[in-house]
Write a structure and sequence with these properties.
mainly alpha
C-alpha cells in the first residue's frame, strides 16, 4: 500500500466508525442488552468466561497497546 491508499483506507474506516457510532446511539437499550447477552453467551460457549473474568484488565491493556501500535504505524505511513 502506498501513502494515498493508506489515507483512503483510514478515511473509509472513519466513515464506518461514524456510522456505527450513530447506529449505537440510536439503538434501544433492549437491543444493546440483547447484544451484550449474545456476546456473553458466545464467550461461555467458547469456554472464555472464566478467562475473561480473571484476565479482563490485562487483555484490555494488550488490545489497547496493539491498537496504539497500529495507529502509530499508520500515522508514519505504514512502514515499520
Amino acid at each position: 500500500m502506498d501513502k494515498e491508499q493508506v489515507r483512503e483506507f483510514v478515511r473509509r474506516w472513519r466513515e464506518v466508525e461514524a456510522l456505527e457510532e450513530r447506529e449505537v446511539k440510536e439503538m434501544s437499550v433492549e437491543v444493546k442488552f440483547r447484544r451484550l447477552l449474545a456476546v456473553q453467551q458466545l464467550a461461555r460457549g467458547l469456554g472464555l468466561s472464566s478467562t475473561l473474568a480473571g484476565e479482563e484488565a490485562t487483555a484490555e491493556r494488550e488490545v489497547r497497546l496493539r491498537w496504539r501500535r497500529l495507529r502509530e504505524t499508520i500515522s508514519r505511513g505504514g512502514s515499520n
